[in-house]
Amino acid sequence: QVQLVESGGGLVQAGGSLRVSCTASGRTFSSYAMGWFRQAPGKEREFVAEISRSGASTNYADSVKGRFTISRDNAKNSGYLQMNSLKPEDTAVYYCAASRFPWTTGKSEQYDYWGQGTQVTVSS
């Protein structure tokens, strides 16, 4: 198993940038694909981005493509989501997740382990 803890959330103005981090403990982080999901008040959790075990492959939701960048540093057991050109609709609790699947496609059910989330608020 792996335990995940998010950090780096906060308040930012529209058009600004923020980086959230995910630190893993337990089993070797490189054994898992990593994803970011978010949940806004009154809405269901939605996929944001994911990255393969080695970092060679990435996948993004259309709503964030070109603005967000997912990355990982397996030596630090960490994953990151760099968020640029933020919009008010990006406001949500952001969760990192880890998957044992060899091929993830942005679906929540493919992920086995979840962090507690970090709040990102974008003001207009």
Explain this structure to me?
The chain is built from no helices and eleven strands. The protein has strands at about 1-5, 10-15, 20-25, 35-40, 45-50, 60, 70-75, 80-85, 90-100, 115, 120-124. Strands 2, 4, 5, 6, 9, 10 and 11 form a seven-stranded mixed beta sheet that branches. It has a four-stranded antiparallel beta sheet with strand order 1-3-8-7, with no helix packed on it. The radius of gyration is 13 Å and the shape is globular. The mean pLDDT is about 95.
Set down the secondary structure blueprint.
Elements: E1 2-7, E2 10-13, E3 18-26, E4 33-39, E5 46-51, E6 58-60, E7 68-73, E8 78-83, E9 92-99, E10 113-114, E11 118-123
Parallel strand pairs: 2-11
Antiparallel strand pairs: 1-3, 3-8, 4-5, 4-9, 5-6, 7-8, 9-10, 9-11
